[in-house]
Amino acid sequence: MRADASDVTRTKHGRPVHQWRRDVVELAALFTAVAVADAVANMVGHGPDGPVLLAMSAVALIATAGFHTWWARRHNHAPPTAHHTGARPSADAEQAGPAAAVAVDRTPQTGGTTLWRMRTTVRDEPGSLAALCVTLAEQGVDILSLQAHPLAEGTVDEFLLRAPTELAGAGISRSIARSGGSGTWIERADAHDLVDAPTRILGLATRTALDAAELPLALRQLLGRCTIRSLPAPSRSGPRGVGAAQGAPVEGVLEGTVLRLEGPEGEVITVERPYLPFTPTEFARARALVELDTRLGPRIPRSQDVLTLPEGNSITVRRAGTADIEAAKAMHERCSTRTLDMRYHGPVHDADRYLNHLLSPRFGRTLAVRTASGRIVGLGHLLWDGDETEIALLVEDEWQRRGIGGQLLGRLVSMAVEAGCESVYAVTQASNTGMVAAMRGLGLPLDYQIEEGTLVITARLEATPVSSRLPYDHAQRPDGRAEHQRAGH
């Protein structure tokens, strides 16, 4: 049995030190026991009823032992069971702090669990976060990770939770509100959210460092569901930052649910989400990612794919950038007016003007098809359009109907799937049967919208995985080229 705190103290080495009162009591009890034993012995040995008294003593002794056993079992000092709250907690429980004193039912859940991402604002005072954690524990909710975003007043806490399936998100929000949380936002999470924040941020920085086209996607994954737009700099004159000052200063702007950052080429990058204000921590992370992209400058992967056409000619498919503008203009000159009109839907003489935007990795990804002599004969574009993704193709007249368009389209859709896009759309003319056939060849669910001769075809990407691989994902040969593939008809 554990001694009471009033009777025992401990030295700095942890050894018990008994007080003098306990020693006196024990000594008195010993003398009393000896006196009683002597009196009983005299009565048994010299009295007429000695055997009877002896039997009665035995019965009393047995009864006393039985009562002591019952009392010890009822008032033992073992840790309480899950349903017993009356016993005193164990020493380990006492040393665990205030939170350990809360009785929580730890019985394993019989049903499944659901992952949730939750963000709430708490007062900046001791115990505020503890109250939320206790509330979640009482509901059987496990906290997998926690990030704190300090504000001028209060703190925004972002949780990754694993909750019983039967517990709805609205129920979690209501319990958090009763515990002092405000502005609570909650949504379903998935296995990708299990990666801790530093690892995820380092992965996004690595992707951005390898490919300038990854910046918008990295920002979207960093900040959650949001819309990202990039507007050209108002002026190219003057030192860096002067031309873009009207839209966003060099240090950026944080305005509630809107971020404005100056891009690597002076453009204004706007990030917006309707449901949750950005925190200074998120703003600093986004600004650091943009600064990394700016310092590294324009860059694209240089791997390429080699395709064999039905007639035996070999062509290569690789990423293109602003360094390919002159070669792309030369292809424009070899294209017919009808081909350019179906691609650009505007004055043909303005086609060259679009190339600076289309080939910039800041606005998407471009694939170029080249012949053995290095001439560009086809271009495929995957363009970030806010929270949507546009897909576009242009194949030189002489090289049409050889399967090049289908090969380009399949690779662009694979890139969109890899980037996490839910759908892609193509804007063309209803008479462009080649583009319509290429979209149908993807084998994905398609939606069609026609307005005044303009056809918009939307492909939903979550339904069917695309078999085409990314051009820079192929196993490289010693000469730096990927394995050969045969283009379809």
Structure description:
By secondary structure, the protein is an alpha+beta fold. The chain has four domains: 8-64; 113-194, ACT domain (Alpha-Beta Plaits, 2-Layer Sandwich), CATH 3.30.70; 198-296, no CATH class; 304-486, Aminopeptidase (3-Layer(aba) Sandwich), CATH 3.40.630.30. 33% of the residues lie in helices and 24% in strands. The chain contains 13 helices and 19 strands. The strands form five sheets. The protein has a six-stranded mixed β-sheet with strand order 15-14-13-12-11-19, with helices on both faces. A hairpin with a 2-residue loop joins strand 14 (376-385) and strand 15. The radius of gyration is 38 Å and the shape is elongated. The termini are far apart.
